[in-house]
Amino acid sequence: MKFDEKGSIIDLEAKVVYSNICCYCGACGAFCTEYISYENGTPITKQKCFEIHGACFDFCPRTFLPVLEMERELFGDVRNDSELGYYTSIVTAQASDAAIAAKGQNGSVVTALLIYLMEKGKIDAACVSKNSLDEPWKPEPLVATTKEEILEGAGSNYEQCPTIMGVGEALANGSKNIAMVGLPCHIQAMRKIQLSKAFDVGGERVKYAIGLLCTETFDRDLLHAKLAEMGIKAEDVKKFDIGEGKFKVFTEDGMTTEKIATMKSCMRDGCKVCYDFAAELADISVGSIGSEEGWNTVIVRSKAGKELIDEAKKAGAIKVKPLGDASIKSVKDLASRKKSENIDNIVQMAGATKILHLAVKPQELSLLLSAEK
Predict the structure, then answer these.
(1) What is the largest CA-CA distance in the chain?
(2) For residue 255, what are the domain limits?
(3) 34 three-class SS
(4) Which end of the chain has fewer surrounding CB within 10 Å, N or C?
């Protein structure tokens, strides 16, 4: 599709970086390594670029995001649900392999699907994140090309990672069939890359975009300060998790919890203008909310997503069962809460006629955002 808005790296800096709404997805730097690098979770321009229309501006999910037009391109229709976006079904699933289930998060569905795709030869690279070996719990992009590398990226980290940098690396390395896993902002960026008519970087080689349900990510310094308040060193943490309204930290001494409401003080500023909880532009979206312990909630959206779930189930890679209405409602409620909590920030930044980067006609707003406050 042809995007109506155009901008340069200077426009990107003014509209996104200096406005403090950058989500640190990695899209700008992934395809402009000559000019853009990252420091402390922020894009830094190493030298001036004089292009009037830049890929960095086109690909950024915070510059503009014509969501409903993108849905028509991706799914052939617009959303049937204002909270969760367009989808065809919602199920609950888990990895069939106990070893995979033990390595991943909750039902380990994402890990199981990536391994299934890799072993069947359907992908030659999986763009995920892993924890840095140099700094505890610092996520960094990983281009996995083996089952072992996919397992290395299993589990959850609640800091932001410039995942699209990994996609750029995989494309530059010549990968032909790629799966990427990301938060809603990563998925938005990936779809803009794929749909852009102005800049062709090979986005069509990303065959699967797997989204993760997300309320927010945490600023690294603020999170580590919060851990210190809890009497925990980052290097002692074995696992993080969120559930039952609590932020859970696991160490050798056991589990320590903090009310998730108090963790809002650690939220990245860029997350405060995000409307998307359910990775609404993904092929499938995966999370834990709504499912029983050891299972994942899976929102199936695209034809590719449906085929992936059906084929992986048939092959025995995952177990799938229906998700009840009450459980689905809990997912919708959390999605609605994120929209309602952030809508004031979004409107304040941009005004009502153009909701920040969402680029939606006023008469279509009811399709996109829940009106409840």
Answers:
(1) 56
(2) 221-264
(3) coil
(4) C
